[in-house]
């Protein structure tokens, strides 16, 4: 090895050591937060070449600062159920980073919600929002409330109580929440009403994912699912592949899954299976989307009921079995860590060509490694599912300008944004010595813009 190469290598080794030290501190300071650790590790592992090339990020302690949320809010959410009993849940809002814009990120209502889950989601959101090219910072929130089996009146009482507290910390130029698991148009509507009542004014830009009649944007419902498929389409195109004639498996049957299925079908794919948290359906003729939409969007039923109308399909209890189905393209669109090493091995041995993460962090670190090692095309969540927050930012822009764009206008902008995220991520991967690796590329492209803005704004 030449002397100059030796010096460079030893500098890179020092940077690696520094990154590991910061990561060790994150683990120590945030004990028992395994999802947050996992999200930090994935980003940090990508950043070594950027830090080696830009030592001022180290001097400015960007890593130490970026892993510390600007603010963590945790609050009591008391409400009364239909039997007159008082119930208490825990609410969260993590305002992670506002270097490039007001905090922006969804609210999740699910019994598994805790500080670790909200922090991992908020941390991911920083880079995702940066990748969209829109002026939005990173945040996330939610509650350990289980909407399943609750009446409409209970949902309303809970969301009103939740917003009574959250309203103190948000605003169109401060923090703009949206939906996520368990939070759709109905919940956003109740929260918007409560916010309006408490503030005494119609501030449309305080929440996104609103109904169309009061400031919502066309194509927001479709945005995350469509965006994921647009992103994967670009990735496939580069390898002379396409959705046309491909078989696809999509996990979940919620907002992201339904519109990923719809767009994949429009592009000529056959979607063989989808799921919910109790099991999956496999339909060799291709999933009938109108049945799934009615069961899930209108009747609020379990996916198992699909087979009552399509006897040729099979229902199987347990959701991880969905990854045993051979397919060309897998789109995990349900929840975090739904593809572990075992499922990843199965997908690879069954010949999967591409993975597109519609959900946040649906693959474990080991699963990602298996995909990359086996040259499976891999679209990581923070790039692939950025379509939802992109159209949320377009909703904010329409609210500010008091305009409403057509579906076609918003969809065209979404498509352009997803192509741009793909190109920027590929470019960053190439520039930093990991050609084709979109995990590295997305992390770096998202990070650099935020780091530079943090430096420009001083030590705050
Ligand atoms: P929804 O609540 O609309 O749907 C979630 C779906 O996933 C449901 O079908 C649910 O089933 C299923 N699910 C939940 N847990 C599991 C599990 N352990 N195994 C299998 N299926 C499960 O949520 P969204 O579609 O909005 O969100 C899905 C994912 O996409 C999340 O990771 C979210 O963070 C991410 N995301 C969402 C965005 C959006 O715009 N909505 C934007 C970017 C990312 P069940 O009904 O039984 O609970």
UniProtKB/TrEMBL annotation:
It comes from the Bacteria. Coiled coil: none annotated. Transmembrane segments: none annotated. Keywords: Oxidoreductase. Residues 217-458 form the Glutamate/phenylalanine/leucine/valine/L-tryptophan dehydrogenase C-terminal domain. Pfam families: ELFV_dehydrog, ELFV_dehydrog_N. InterPro entries: Aminoacid_DH-like_N_sf, Glu/Leu/Phe/Val/Trp_DH, Glu/Leu/Phe/Val/Trp_DH_C, Glu/Leu/Phe/Val/Trp_DH_dimer, Glu_DH, Glu_Leu_Phe_Val_DH, NAD(P)-bd_dom_sf, NAD_bind_Glu_DH. GO terms for molecular function: glutamate dehydrogenase (NADP+) activity. Signal peptide: none annotated. Belongs to the Glu/Leu/Phe/Val dehydrogenases family. Homohexamer. PANTHER family: NADP-SPECIFIC GLUTAMATE DEHYDROGENASE 1-RELATED. This is Glutamate dehydrogenase. It comes from Metabacillus rhizosphaerae. The gene is gdhA.
């Amino acid at each position: 090895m030449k002397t100059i190469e030796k010096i460079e290598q030893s500098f890179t080794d020092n940077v690696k050591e520094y990154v590991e030290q910061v990561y060790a501190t994150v683990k120590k300071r945030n004990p028992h937060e395994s999802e947050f650790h996992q999200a930090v590790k994935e980003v940090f592992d990508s950043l070594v070449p950027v830090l080696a090339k830009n030592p001022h990020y180290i001097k400015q302690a960007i890593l130490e600062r970026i892993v510390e949320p600007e603010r963590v809010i945790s609050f009591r959410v008391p409400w009364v159920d239909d039997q007159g009993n008082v119930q208490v849940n825990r609410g969260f809002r993590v305002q992670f980073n506002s270097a490039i814009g007001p905090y922006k990120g969804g609210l999740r209502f699910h019994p598994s919600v805790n500080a670790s889950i909200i922090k991992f989601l908020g941390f991911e959101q920083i880079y995702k929002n940066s990748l969209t090219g829109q002026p939005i910072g990173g945040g996330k929130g939610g509650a350990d409330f289980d909407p399943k089996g609750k009446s409409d009146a209970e949902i309303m009482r809970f969301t009103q109580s939740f917003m009574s507290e959250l309203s103190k910390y948000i605003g169109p130029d401060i923090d703009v929440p949206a939906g996520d698991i368990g939070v759709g148009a109905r919940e956003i509507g109740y929260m918007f009403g409560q916010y309006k009542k408490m503030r005494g004014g119609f501030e449309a830009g305080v929440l996104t994912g609103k109904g169309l009649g009061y400031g919502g944007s066309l194509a927001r419902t479709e945005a995350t699912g469509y965006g994921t498929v647009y992103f994967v389409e670009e990735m496939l195109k580069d390898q002379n592949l396409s959705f046309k004639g491909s078989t696809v498996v999509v996990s979940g049957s919620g907002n992201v899954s339904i519109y990923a299925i719809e767009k994949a079908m429009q592009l000529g794919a056959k979607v063989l299976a989808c799921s919910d948290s109790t099991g999956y359906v496999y339909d060799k003729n291709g999933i009938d989307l109108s049945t799934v939409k009615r069961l899930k969007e209108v009747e609020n039923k379990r996916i198992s009921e699909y087979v009552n109308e399509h006897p040729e399909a099979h229902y199987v209890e347990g959701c991880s079995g969905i990854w045993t189905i051979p397919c060309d393209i897998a789109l995990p669109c349900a929840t975090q860590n739904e593809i572990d090493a075992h499922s990843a091995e199965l997908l690879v041995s069954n010949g999967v060509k591409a993975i597109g993460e519609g959900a946040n962090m649906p693959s474990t670190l080991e699963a990602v490694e298996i995909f990359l090692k086996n040259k499976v095309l891999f679209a990581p969540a923070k790039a692939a599912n950025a379509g939802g927050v992109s159209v949320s930012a377009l909703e904010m822009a329409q609210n500010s300008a008091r305009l409403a764009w057509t579906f076609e206008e918003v969809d065209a902008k979404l498509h352009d944004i997803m192509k741009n995220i793909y190109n920027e991520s590929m470019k960053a991967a190439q520039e930093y010595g990991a050609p084709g690796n979109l995990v590295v590329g997305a992390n770096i492209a998202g990070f650099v813009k935020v780091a530079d803005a943090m430096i420009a704004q001083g030590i705050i």
